[in-house]
UniProtKB/TrEMBL annotation:
Signal peptide: none annotated. It comes from the Eukaryota. It comes from Ficus carica. PROSITE patterns: UDPGT. PANTHER family: GLYCOSYLTRANSFERASE. This is Glycosyltransferase. Coiled coil: none annotated.
Length: 474
């Protein structure tokens, strides 16, 4: 990684007065979405373009507190705007619900409609001070930014927070499968349907966003040519009239920022003492709630695998993450018993640093797109265990198309409890088998290709420069 420079040191200075163009980010306020747009804010701001990040105060606080790999306080070009919204209900997650989709955060998602008026006012104020206002919004927030249509010097760019593979499949199915013969050659036969992935309420919310398609000037993807060339190309072919830019990964690919020793998470000190590539990192993100029985089997499975592990065990996020958090109990004596092979982390874990650590050799993951991108960037193979949304399809991309992961838990068995033996077998396959070793080798190669792509002259950098040139055009 030594010679690779990040986007950050390369502002594009091609004669425009860039200060006249400003970017406004409007995230969907769930962690995986807040995080991606905050990382993107950093990348855009390094081109000397002021960025305004707009969300409810609690969500701005959450995004800043949890971001890893850089410090948002150190950027003078990113401005956070706290919008006050009326209180919304924040029920706890329900691990016994019919699907694993986090419906308990829907009241928070619906509360985003309160952002529409403040966002419109903010945009019209900015529009009189800037040559052009570029609104980058989560594709689920079209209704919030719809008034862009009335602001003459504003342009809107939805950002798709999932893989190009998943985005392509959604669009392709919605459009009635154009280019069917050809597309099918690149789509594995058994891509799962959307059954069990979402709740109807959430799909209704997503469909409501489709009516604002006319505001779109072009689309952004947290995708990378080295990872998803086929699907980025297919998407550009089915949407020929709109520009799209694949500018991922948004997360930093190098972790250069030095931390004071007392600022370093204790799990990193533990990792320092382990053998290279010997540890599996286990985390199912911020939206997944498991029953006690499922947690117990997972705990026993990790123990039986006899592989070193770091397990992040936290309650799924509520609509507001700063309330009371319930501690998840483990079988009595468990943590003491596994002391020599693993640690359980209950607070916010430095995922990017863990994945970038030389002792980490695998990631047991729900396959949310942030996690996939971070793991691929760091060259770490994935043990896939999908739960909802785009995760089952990301699993196909990771395990069948890219072959940088293996399936630990099959999506088709989502309604059953995964017993300890299944977990142990899946973990051993990834961490201690010839197939696991081959998978790891491919993951390392792909990681190198992705890191090269964001360096000077790399594919992702060229694409990013092209997006910046487009929004700053005279
Ligand atoms: C950023 O600034 C806030 C407010 O001053 C502070 O509470 C927080 O700890 C800072 N974060 C970091 C990572 O330095
Ligand atoms: C996997 O690779 C490691 C490190 O190169 C090696 O020690 C181990 O024996 C390999 N395991 C198998 C089953 O091939």
């Amino acid at each position: 990684m030594a010679n690779h420079q990040n986007h950050q040191n390369h502002p594009l200075t091609n004669g425009h007065n860039l200060s006249q163009v400003v970017v406004v980010m409007v995230p969907l306020p769930a962690q995986g979405h807040l995080n991606q747009l905050l990382h993107l804010s950093r990348l855009v701001s390094t081109y000397d373009i002021p960025v305004h990040y707009i969300a409810a105060a609690t969500h701005n606080r959450q995004a800043k507190l949890r971001v890893h790999g850089w410090n948002p306080n150190s950027s003078t070009n990113i401005h956070f705007h706290d919008i006050s919204v009326p209180p919304f209900p924040c029920p706890p997650p329900d691990p016994t619900a019919a699907t694993n989709f986090p419906s308990h955060i829907l009241p928070m998602i619906y509360a985003t409609h309160h952002l529409r008026d403040p966002v419109r006012e903010f945009l019209s104020e900015l529009s009189s001070k800037a040559r052009r206002v570029i609104v980058i919004y989560d594709s689920c927030m079209a209704a919030v930014v719809q008034d862009v249509a009335c602001i003459q010097n504003a342009e809107a760019y939805p950002f798709h927070s999932v893989s190009a593979f998943a985005t392509f499949l959604y669009l392709w199915e919605e459009m009635g499968k154009p280019l069917e013969e050809e597309a099918k050659r690149y789509i594995p036969d058994d891509v799962p349907s959307l059954e069990g992935c979402f709740t109807d309420d959430f799909l209704d919310f997503v469909f409501e966003q489709y009516q604002f398609k006319s505001i779109i000037s072009g689309s952004l993807l947290n995708a990378n040519w080295a990872i998803e060339k086929l699907y980025i190309e297919l998407m550009e072919r089915i949407l020929p009239d709109k520009k799209s830019w694949a500018i991922g990964p948004f997360n930093p690919v190098e972790l250069s920022e030095k931390k004071a020793p007392n600022d370093r998470h204790i799990c990193l000190d533990w990792l320092d003492k382990q053998a290279p590539k010997s540890v599996i990192y286990v985390s199912f993100g911020t939206t997944i709630a498991l029953t006690d029985k499922k947690i117990e089997e997972l705990a026993l499975g990790l123990e039986q695998s006899n592989q070193k592990f770091i397990w992040v065990l936290r309650e799924a996020d509520k609509g507001d993450v700063f309330g009371e958090v319930t501690k998840i109990e483990l079988p009595k004596g468990y943590e003491e018993r596994v002391r020599n092979i693993g640690i359980v982390v209950r607070d916010w874990a430095p995922q990017l640093e863990i994945l970038g650590h030389p002792s980490t050799g695998g990631f047991l993951s729900h396959c949310g797109w942030n996690s996939c991108m971070e793991s691929i960037t760091m060259g770490v193979p994935i043990g896939a265990w999908p739960f909802h949304s785009d995760q089952p399809r990301n699993t196909v991309l990771i395990t069948k198309v890219l072959k940088v992961g293996t399936v630990v838990r099959d999506w088709s068995r989502r309604d059953e409890v995964a017993v300890a033996a299944t977990v142990a077998e899946g973990v051993k396959k990834l961490m201690a088998s010839e197939e696991g070793n081959e998978t790891r080798k491919r993951a390392e190669e792909l990681g190198r290709a992705v890191r090269r792509s964001v360096a000077e002259g790399g594919g992702s950098r060229v694409e990013f420069d092209s997006f910046i040139a487009h929004i700053t055009r005279s």
